[in-house]
Structures are given as structure tokens and as C-alpha cells.
Amino acid sequence: MDLRDRFIFIVLRELGLRASELIKATMSAFYRLSDPQDGKTYWIMQIREETAKGRKERKVPVPRCVLDALGAYREAFGMPTLPDLGETGALVLSPRTSRTAVTDGGRAIKDVESRRFFQAWRPITTRHGLYNIVKGRLAQTADFLDAIDDAQRATQLRLASPNWLRHTFAKAALLTGQDIRHVAAWMGHRDLSTTMVYTEQEALDLIRATNSVAPGLLAAER
């Protein structure tokens, strides 16, 4: 379960997904795409029209850390490291198995060990289920921070949620100079003004303008 939860945090943080988009995705959402311009093959995640907010399908490039986390998680659940296009199973799985699982021949798989062998895992299919996973891990980390007398960060983590990870992705992308149009496309925003909510660019412009005419005026730290 640790590797599954690690994957959840990484994919939310690195791809800026909505919780609903993650729990509705299948393993085959990850696939390879070749670029004829550079001759390389890249991994892409497809957020399908029926699962995306506003029914706006998008396909986003997958960072190496996401693919590595996915591979480790899949291996922990007894699956091949990388998914293929024929997989229809849910992307987010429970460590519990389905009691209604059957073999290809239609015979019921009655014992837990056999269901694990056949990878008959239950899916996590609700935002509430994903929310509980994320909040549970954040609470554990907050307890650790309390134990080392870091109450401020512990309080911040207890207020966080899956949507906080999406916000973190957007702000980090914009503040490191990525084009706002690309970030909007990555997040599935139809209107650039929605993406602008995540940036501090206006404040940064004011800081730089003030520093140019009155150096040392503003409260700053190194």
C-alpha cells in the first residue's frame, strides 16, 4: 500500500490531476507516443472526455518520476512494471480483493490467495475513497511533525487535500516560468483566467517594479 499511496501523491503533484480524473482512469490511460521530430518515444497520460471536467479530453506528458512510481506500485500488486493498451482495470487499486472475481472460464475464485494471484483487486472508484487515502497519509506526516515540534507545518498539512496537490502543481509550473497556455492545457482549463488564479505574477511584478525605484524598501529574506 505504501507504493500505491506514493504513486497517488506523485501523480497528483506532477500532473495536476483532479481527484475525479484520477479515480476514473484505467491503467491503459498511460501509453507511448512517438515524436517523429526527435525520434524519441514518450509516455503520455490520457484524461478521457467522459472523465474530464467539462468533457474536455487532454493528453499530458508523463515525467520520469511518475512512470517510475507507477511501475513500483504495479509490481507491488503483482503486475508487469509498465501497462499496455489492453488493460481495462482501474488505475487506483485497493489491496483488498473482489469476492465476485471469476476465472476466464467463469469459475468463482473463492480464496484470497488465489484472487491475489489472478490480480482480482478491488478498485478505488470514489473521490471519498481517494480523499481518505490522501488525508490519512497527510495526518501521519503531521503527527510526525508534531513529534519533532514543527507544529506550524503539521497544521498546514492537516488542512491539505488532493486539490491542494493540484494547486501546488499549477503554482510551481507558473512560478518556474512555464507558459501559462501550456499550464492551462495541462490542467484542462478552458479559460486562461482560471489558470491565472494560481500565479503570483502580479505580486512579483510589483516587487520588481518597487525594487527598481526603491531598493531595500520591501521586507525580504534570503
Shape estimate: globular
In percent, how much strand structure appears in the residues? 5-15%
Per DSSP, the total helix count is 10
N-to-C terminal Cα separation, in Å? 39 Å
CATH overall fold name: hpI Integrase, Chain A
| CATH architecture annotation | Orthogonal Bundle
- Structural class by SSE content: mainly alpha
Number of domains: 1
Query: What would you report as the Rg, rounded to the nearest angstrom?
Result: 21 Å
Tell me about the largest β-sheet.
3 strands, antiparallel
Q: How would you describe this structure in keywords?
A:
hpI Integrase, Chain A; two-stranded antiparallel ribbon; 10 helices
Describe the structure in your own words.
With 222 residues, the protein is mainly α. It has a single domain (2-205), classed as hpI Integrase, Chain A. The chain is 49% helix and 12% strand. The protein contains ten helices and five strands. The protein has helices at residues 2-15, 19-23, 64-76, 112-117, 127-147, 151-159, 162-175, 180-187, 192-196, 201-213; strands at 30-35, 40-47, 58-61, 93-97, 121-123. The chain has a three-stranded antiparallel beta sheet, with no helix packed on it. The protein has a two-stranded antiparallel sheet with strand order 4-5. Helix 1 packs antiparallel against helix 3 (64-76) and helix 1 (2-15) crosses helix 7. It is globular and about 80 Å long. The mean pLDDT is 85.
Short structural description:
With 222 residues, the chain is mainly α.
Give the topology.
Layout: H1 2-15, H2 19-23, E1 30-35, E2 40-47, E3 58-61, H3 64-76, E4 93-97, H4 112-117, E5 121-123, H5 127-147, H6 151-159, H7 162-175, H8 180-187, H9 192-196, H10 201-213
Antiparallel strand pairs: 1-2, 2-3, 4-5
